[in-house]
Amino acid sequence: METLETIKTRRSVNYFESGKQIPVDKIKEIIGLANLAPSSFNLQPWEVVLVTDPERKKALRKCAFNQPKVEEASAMLIVIANPGAVEENVDRVLADWVKKGYMKEADVEKQRGTPFGLYGERASETRKIFAVKNAAFFAMNFMIAAKGMGYETHPMDGFNAAEVKREFGIPDDRIIPLLIAVGHLRPDQKLLPRAFRRDVDDFLRMNGYAKG
Ligand SMILES: Cc1cc2nc3c(=O)[nH]c(=O)nc-3n(C[C@H](O)[C@H](O)[C@H](O)COP(=O)(O)O)c2cc1C
After folding, report:
1. How remote is the CA of residue 14 from the centroid of ligand 1, in Å?
2. Is 182 exposed, middle or buried (0-12, 13-18, 19+ CB in 10 A)?
């Protein structure tokens, strides 16, 4: 599907065709496209738990205030933000940049300090914001790519993060910005018109907020 059309027609779909699967390879392909999202210092602080097993979807539904779409969707993604991605990925990011000619080997030591300065200590608020911000880009890319490939999605933050972590063995230091349901629109359901959006002029501040 053409890019602008994909953006215009993506909707948060509430009713999925229960039992209609998407092959795991296809979902992995979409995840691969989402993985092309830009990220701070290319540190890619996202992880995903892909839930396809009916029993596991049922368990996830219990953690998500019993929202039926969790079980009805072909699959659920638990999108995870990893504040530790700076420590985990900085060296391979730099090595790749050197290899591809983005920077010189001699600058690696100096550059290595940059993300630690920008994104703070591992347990800091700054680091959490870094991780969540980038995981959100990944999530949006996933929803656009899924729509482009003919599937529907629904982003969700109606869940108990502590319960999801416990149920799916997600380490304590991770953050779960959202879940994403992916699947097929139930054929007997017609989408309601898209929910309102503010006019651009409601939130656009040209060259700064007005003083006074
Ligand atoms: C981060 C995030 C969390 C959301 N959580 C829920 C949710 O838990 N349950 C739900 O029914 N909709 C949820 N929504 C969907 C929004 O209500 C929906 O995107 C919005 O009404 C606009 O509709 P549209 O996506 O079809 O344009 C969420 C959306 C986002 C971006």
Report:
1. 9
2. buried
CA 210 to chain centre: 34
Range of the domain at 48: 3-192
Give the residue, by CA position, lying nearest to ligand 1 atom 16. 12
Q: Is the pTM higher than 0.90?
A: yes
Give the Å distance between the CA of 118 and the centre of ligand 1.
31
Q: Which residues contact 119 (CB under 8 A, 6 or more apart)?
A: 40, 41, 43, 86, 126, 127, 130
Q: Which residues, listed in sequence order, are joined to residue 50 by a DSSP beta bridge?
A: 77
Number of structural domains (the chain) is 1
DSSP 146-175: HHHTT-EEEEE--S-HHHHHHHHT--TT-E
Contact by Cβ (8 Å): 143, 4: no
Residue nearest atom 7 in ligand 1 by C-alpha distance: 156
Among residues 142, 135, 147, 136, the alpha carbon closest in space to that of 7 is found at 147
Whether 198 maps to a domain, the answer reads no
* Contact residues of ligand 1, CB 6 A cut-off: 11-12, 155-158, 178, 194-195
pLDDT tens for 73-112 read 999 999 999 999 999 999 999 999 999 999 999 999 999 9
